[in-house]
């Protein structure tokens, strides 16, 4: 009964969202309040239906309904309850439903937020968002329905993919989906602005927080994915330039460019066409990423199984590009800039360079992902475009972007005088140079690493300078103490100073990335109580213990960790054997000792018997500065919260608009 | 036996391959040129990959190095066995050179594109304004920037 009800709700949601598309278009054309209200009710109903369908699927998972095919292939009786809950999005069907649910929620909240200025802009935006929802729901209903039942229930399910049985994996996919889906809102409003010919900054102001939210979720989702790869996959790294990782990176790069360039449009009324191009590119790349993940075009550890929905996403990508390009071209005359440009040495020039670099980075990643397909089509030979390619191409671009993070805020709008440049850049440059000298003195010889440390110092110097200038000025005018002046400065201008905090988080990310240049690893074979050295550490193999749990058999190796002859502690890298599964799948559970300087990372690879003696195999790594990646992610989170925190003045403006409407 | 015969034999001894001790660095140097083709990994370079297939290949490389083969000879042997797909990055020759050329080319073209747009804009600009005009986020910032100016 429940599966049939879920199925019915899905079809109803599809019908409702299709109705919302038609009603919203008619509402935009006729401006009839009845139609506008009807659209809003359809959107609310769509959200409730998607939520109910998801709730039913959750109940089916939690109650082990193995007559439902999707549950029988993605869960099992012995799966812990928490993971039964998250197993819902561990496969194609459930993840698509989660996607649809998030999208329906975003549409609902976007409609609520835009009730203050109902009109063609909001109606067209609702139509476009509802169309996307209808597209996803149609794919779910026709091709990937999670409620399909089998004639006979299986006694137990085959279980969730063991690699996904991890807390990070429970939140990584929803975060990514929030990011992908979130960009639908600014895209829809951009297209609505073109359709309604309301080509002012209204659509940007309306969607600024949505864009930031989507950008944040997409970025955090990727970092969480990196964390998962680091602790679960056991290859010692957190980013492998896998096609699916790249698919998430692409819209994040263009989205970052968009977040920066809209500031020029808001303040100067420039780059209107360019911002349209960027948001179209970002949304298209979101769908393109979905196409890559679900079509089987490229092979990836993260990809879902090949599915008939792949070509549909390909068609959607083509449709988006054609529709939005034609629309943009037809409105070019309305998008002409009232130019106020004076000098390339200006904030505007900095933003343009920033955009150019982000776009080049996007192209480089896209090119790397697609080049094997292109090369095979042209030459007939298969080739591999692996991490060495991406590192070679992307490291210089990344470093240029980093230094620009420090230069941009110091440039004035319109034109920056030579005197101003010297005055504002001196402190930051000195800080950068000091960092470079310290790095060299500490023995760093890798040229990219030295440059990275110099730039990290420079950007940090810029951020400190900006806070210091602001706090000093505020302190002298209001008499506030220095710390209070900094707090109030940030509170009064959250967007600007929250942005600097995000930039500082990016600096910390780069410090972490730079640590990759000094990674060390060693594969060792150790007899009982035999020791090996890696970096400053000595590790002693102290034996193996085995235990059998309801889900897994755990083989735990024990390593004593010593530094300068002093015992620091014990590491327990282990393997888990999912003995109830037919394929007896094994997963590795790495042991990591982290500090701000480095991670000692141990992977147990099994035992070998030689001449009657047990020899344990380990892969050991010293990964310097990794902790800074995770700290950077937290700082970015704090910065984003500050930027997005509701502002009283903005609220007042909204209330005024509502009153006027 | 005449002592003269021993001379060529002595030199021949140097030509006989000797099983040298192979270091991890040597294996990694070859491994980073090659991709893991196990089908499960995202084509990670062999020196980084930890799957069973990669371990086998690293063992094979070790043996090839021990038999006296050079790094390039080993890479060539792998290419003849698996094709260009075995390389961890596209070779910088033939059509595959395009893979390396395009990103810097796009950056260069973009740079010239931006420059030409800026030139067009600067020809049609609005009345001149004072240099170093600060950002106008809100009235508070205006005050902030003017405070800063006073202090300069």
Structure commentary:
The complex is a heterodimer of chains A (661) and B (152). By secondary structure, chain A is α+β, with helices and mostly antiparallel strands. Among the domains of chain A are: 1-165, Four Helix Bundle (Hemerythrin (Met), subunit A), CATH 1.20.120; 518-628, Tick-borne Encephalitis virus Glycoprotein, domain 1. Chain A has 20 helices and ten strands. In chain A, the strands form two sheets. In chain A, strands 2, 3, 4, 5, 6 and 7 form a six-stranded antiparallel beta sheet that branches. In chain A, strands 1-10-9-8 form a four-stranded antiparallel beta sheet, with no helix packed on it. In chain A, strand 8 (591-594) and strand 9 form a beta hairpin. In chain A, helix 9 runs antiparallel to helix 19 (627-644), helix 10 runs antiparallel to helix 13 and helix 14 (387-407) runs parallel beside helix 16. The longest helix of chain A is centred in the middle third of the chain and has 33 residues, at 347-379. The radius of gyration of chain A is 27 Å and the shape is globular. In chain A, 53% of the residues are buried. With 152 residues, chain B is mostly helical. Chain B has a domain at 22-94: Orthogonal Bundle (Helicase, Ruva Protein, domain 3). Chain B is built from six helices and no strands. In chain B, helix 2 (24-31) packs across helix 3 (52-66). Chain B starts with a helix and ends with a helix. Residues 127-137 of chain B have low confidence and may be disordered. The chains are: A alpha+beta (661), B mainly alpha (152). The interface between A and B is large, with 74 and 61 residues.
